[in-house]
Amino acid sequence: MPSTQKTLHFLCSKLVTVISVGVLGFCMSTKWSETTMECTQVGTDFSNGSAVVTLEVFFGIVDRDHCPSFGGLDTFQVIPKLVETGVTPLVLHSVVSILLALCLLCSACSFLISLYNSVSNPYETYMGPIGVYVFSSLSACLSVVVLIIFALNVTLTSMTEDLVKNFAGAIPADLRNKSTEMQLGYYLVIIYTVLSLFAIALIYMYEHAAYTQRREQQRPTEDAPKEIMMY
Fold it and tell me: Residue 143: left if φ>0, alpha if ψ -120 to 50, beta else—which one?
């Protein structure tokens, strides 16, 4: 059976991992970004409307105010709609979705390893602290990549403009002055990253304390006179 100290550290790591999975699951169901742009109908010299594109991981909303003509409010599934607009935004958003799924998988593995270590005492293998280090580190690294790719896709590609033009239909529109604000879902990924790193820190604290305790137990033997040790 593991010591009380080890059980507490791994149980805390398990709890933190559960919270991080809940945070990531919630962020995947809420808004990630909101992009606003001015809309001018082709053939006119003034801006007579606006469009707002709100994106989640799987769903989105395009709200067109006189952009062009009378505008409209449309909801859509992100990946199927991106198939109709452009290759680069589709690939980048698909990568984001895949990486988020991998984050959940890695967190699940970290949770199971922490649970196993809280009730048993395995050797230093992938089922011990090393496993938590590996899977929680992967979760943190992949989530950082998600943040970078999503931000680049929204701000540097023409994804949002293409979505507005797709819903505008046959009436051409000129879109300009795009501005993007990241929403709650995007920032929750940062919290997920921090929680994954905190899960690693909890196990490292246990490893450091256990190593210090082993050194303290060995010190009397190391400090003993050589004559005594010969016997």
Answer: alpha
**Of 164, 168, 174, nearest to 42 (Cα)?**
174
Single-letter residue type at 61:
I
DSSP state of 181: E
Token output for 4? 């009380």
* Amino acid making up residue 193: T
Which of 17, 13, 43 lies closest to 193 in space, CA to CA?
17
Dmax (CA) of the chain:
101
150-181 residue pLDDT tens: 999 999 999 999 998 888 877 777 888 899 99
CB-based contact 193:7 (threshold 8 Å)? no
Pairing mode, if any, of strands 173-182 and 33-41?
antiparallel
Which one-letter DSSP state was computed for residue 31? -
Q: Quick: pLDDT tens for 81-124.
A: 999 888 999 999 999 999 999 999 999 999 999 888 888 877 66
CA 173, CA 42: separation in Å to the nearest integer? 5
Q: Which two tokens stand for residue 64?
A: 């067109």
